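User: Can you help me understand a structure? I only have the sequence.
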Amino acid sequence: VVNVRNGNFQDANGYTVNGSVEIRRQANNSVQLNFSSFSSDRSGNLFIYLSNSANGISGGVDLGSLNFRNGSFTVAVPANVGVTDYDYVVIWCRAIGQSFGAAQLN
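Assistant: Let's start by predicting it. Here is the structure, written out as tokens:
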């Protein structure tokens, strides 16, 4: 059973996103994303998705608005999503319909 996967953010479409992310199953079986040293050169209308594509969100899971432009923070993952269900964490701008960056989970 895989309980943790992690990755580093890579820029996309001319935008800058840095930092790392970890998806982890907790002792109580809940799953969360832990962002470390995260930064984005833009803010506003950005959302966090779990996806199986670095450049798209089709079929992915919307984890809500990106409320932090910089720093370390944790985001809850829905109970029906497992650690191995998705391969990317994508920072998506709804206003322009593009990825600002993604981290491949290994």
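Now, to help you interpret it: The mean pLDDT is 95. Residues 30 and 79 are 6 Å apart (CA to CA). Let me know which part you'd like to focus on.
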